[in-house]
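Any chance you could type out some protein's one-letter sequence along with its backbone structure tokens so I can compare the two?
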Amino acid sequence: MAIPFGSLLPRTSRLRTFVSYSVMLGATAVAYLWIRAQGEQLEAPAATGASAAERGAHSSDLAHLLLALGVITLLARVVGGACRRLLGQPPVIGEILAGILLGPSVLGALWPEAQHFLLPESVAPALGVVSKIGVVLFMFLVGLDLDPRLLRGNTHSTIAVSHASIVAPFLLGATLALWLYPLYSSASVGFTAFSLFLGVSLSITAFPVLARILRDRRVQGTRLGVTALACAAVDDVSAWTLLALVVGIATATMSGAVWTIAYVAAYVALMMLVVRPLMQRWFVAREERYEGPLSHSALAFVFVALLGSALATEWIGIHALFGAFLLGAILPNEGRLARELRSRIEDVVLVLFLPSFFAFTGMRTSIGLVEGSRDWMFCGLIVLTAVVGKFGGSLFAARLTGMSWRHSAALGVLMNTRGLMELIVLNLGLDLGVISPTIFTMMVIMALVTTFMTTPLLDLLLGRRGFGDPPPDALPARTP
């Protein structure tokens, strides 16, 4: 049994130690009081930095931000898990709902004081920065999860379905803009930018959510699962390319848009012809020379490349997320380094950063902005247009390529999944001022409805395991 050191000392030694310690503390106090008396007679220059009150306010904002992040992360886990277990929905649905619950639509309406305390307006800019960093990292992961073989080795049906699922909702969305623009836009936004953005935003498919649904059903290797992943991959690349051009047009004059498109073309050429071979050579070299885990220096190199690519597209004027996505897409997505890089980044992004993005979106979503029969009628019309365009375009294109009606309908349901990717697009449009807060709220409702309907419609069409047998030549698609 261990014996305390103090008990080994004689009683007189302990008394002497106590007295010495007390004298030392007393002398220190007397010395400081003398120093303080001398210093009180001095005068310092006028203050040039932040005052004590301002520093206190900054400290309070940090405390609020830390509290908000903790509550957001916990609620996202709880609601996301409940959606998965009780409703059979992907957790992203619950995470989006958790963000809306914390915003003015629910908590702000039922308990304004609590909403203001948890997410005060002073915290919104910091939360916005955190969420945007999370989206940039997430888009890098989306690009890293994009298998190039899905884009190269697909059949004509994949190209037909993916492009039909873009063209149909794009044209319907642009047509819908004829009614929405005079009612919900402003003179500061041109009809061209508004209609293009509305069309492209209805054309988005949430590749990560679709892949998660297929993985949960363990059918990503079946013929329908592989076709859906390939179509979604082509759809995402095409739609995000169009969106980059739309953002360039929305943020510049027509003459400036020409330069923006030229810069984008030069940037893509540089990434594909120079950066891609160099990064792939670097990945292969590290795979061959090093067997241990990815070093901090190597991880820092990847992050610098990621930030540099994001910075380039932000400077061009088409938003940093496009640069992050493209860098992830040109990196090798197989091998030990890719798997380790994904695991290093994925956990913190999915658990911490993305819930903050959902909460930030929830703060900007106010269901109260959609009021009256006219607003709800147009909200329903947006949902109907999105479903008819995406589902209908995919359905008929797949049927024309020889798929059965049942599998064509299932493919249309999968392509109609929007989820997180739609929210990223909508926040981008709201940041640019292309869409109003009312249209933003209507589109968020559309994203929730179209994602929520995916699982029950698939169960109705095919059952839990009704995707057919995997073909012998099926490409085993990786999922995020």
Q: What stands out?
A: The two ends are 54 Å apart (CA to CA). Residues 52-87 form the longest helix (36 residues). The chain has a mean pLDDT of 80. Residues 157 and 402 are 8 Å apart (CA to CA).
